[in-house]
Amino acid sequence: MKMYDLINKKKKKETLTKEEIEFMVQGFTNGTIPDYQMSAFLMAVCLNGMNQEETAALTVAMANSGDILDLSQIHGVKVDKHSTGGVGDKTSLVLSPMIAALGVPVAKMSGRGLGHTGGTIDKLESFPGFSTTISTEQFIQNVNKVKMAIVGQTANLAPADKKIYALRDVTATVDNLSLIASSIMSKKIASGSDVIVLDVKTGSGAFMKSYEDSLALAKEMVQIGTIAGRQTFAVITDMNQPLGKNVGNTLEVIEAIETLKGNGPEDLLKVSITLASYMLIGAGIAKDVEEATEKLYQTIENRSALDKFAEFISAQGGDSKAVYDTGILPKASIEEEVGAPVSGFITNIHTDEVGMTSLILGGGRETKDSIIDLSVGIRLHKKLGDYVNQGDSLATLYANDSSKLQEAKQRFLQAYVIGSEKPVTPPYVYAVVTKDGVLQV
Fold it and tell me: In what order do the strands lie in the sheet with 246-247?
């Protein structure tokens, strides 16, 4: 078998076998297949596509290229959730303790953020002493005892995906549905959970800007997960404006805590409850969304989710007092309001620009080596459909550098569009994709 022949086969729009895809992934991972040949293959895929069987084979081959996390020592049905990324997305911090409080094990590997805001791991490091690098043995022990643990991804988790993605990033081969789906799902399959719930964002702040593209990606990933033997659900949620009101690492932690106390914004709560509902259904704890929703709201009302969050923070070395007193968490030295330049309705929010504002303040990474300032960010006071008078505060910016603050303020003003007519606001949740089809919400 030769890589040249596989490139030529895909160039001619022919279908590759499972064995051919495994040969290619293994060869590229161990260095016997060079970058230039893999680059040629990736471009052929972008031009000619892959069918579902090829995509599933690529996913499994990438998952098997490194460590497969063995969670067999964890009691019960293990659940996990993955988001395709957005601005203000802190759902993992809300839903994980709710699920754990109901006795369902959440064994989660998360990444660091690269872009406008930090990832779940970065946010959790807002808690003094919190460790995301505990051993596999401690990880399993914590999940069995606390019912949740969140750690950083190991270096040898789906290494083929890391190598392939690095090539895609510099060869204009990122935006192919099969390559996107296999990249996401290879890491989820390697992470070892039984149930995978995917939060597929759609809109101006999402990777997939249109609903149609988001739906296609959701279907592809559910198909892959099902073929791989995992219960997989995908929930398509809105990202035409930031989720919740806080953007920035510590600010998002504070908002997650407020949500667990019952004081959170409606959109964050609704999206978190919907995602968590399908995690409970997959785990067999609830027969339908109505029953799951009722159980989840009870964890907020009786404070068991909040207490579970504190227990989780403490189990990984963090100061759990900060869950009950968020004043302990890092705080920026400068606060400044951004006033509305004119009167009218918020008709559009360029969500990516809000994210870039956070990046300018220091809340994200431009490169993998960038140091995040956990305390900076944005608190939004107005969202889509709200009316503002000229001079009303659109948001508060939190900074530690006055020069970055002025640049961020100008960038933020580019994000908001103010007009005379009140817009139709998008739903929080559009649809749910299961192995049996699409459910409109």
Answer: 246-247, 377-380, 393-399, 334-339
Q: Name the fold adopted by 79-325+429-440.
A: Pyrimidine Nucleoside Phosphorylase; Chain A, domain 2 (3.40.1030)
Instruction: Give tens-digit pLDDT for 260-308.
Output: 999 999 999 999 999 999 999 999 999 999 999 999 999 999 999 999 9
Pick one of 3.40.50.150, 3.10.580.10, 3.90.1170.30, 3.40.50.720 as the CATH number of 332-419.
3.90.1170.30
At which residue do the structure tokens 């084979």 appear?
57
pLDDT tens for 171-229 read: 999 889 999 999 999 988 988 899 999 999 999 988 889 999 999 999 999 999 999 89
Alpha helices in 35-190 (DSSP H): 35-48, 52-63, 91-101, 120-124, 136-146, 159-170, 177-190
What's the predicted TM-score (pTM) here?
0.92
List the catalytic residues. Answer: 82, 161, 168, 183, 187
What is the CATH code for 3-49?
1.20.970.10
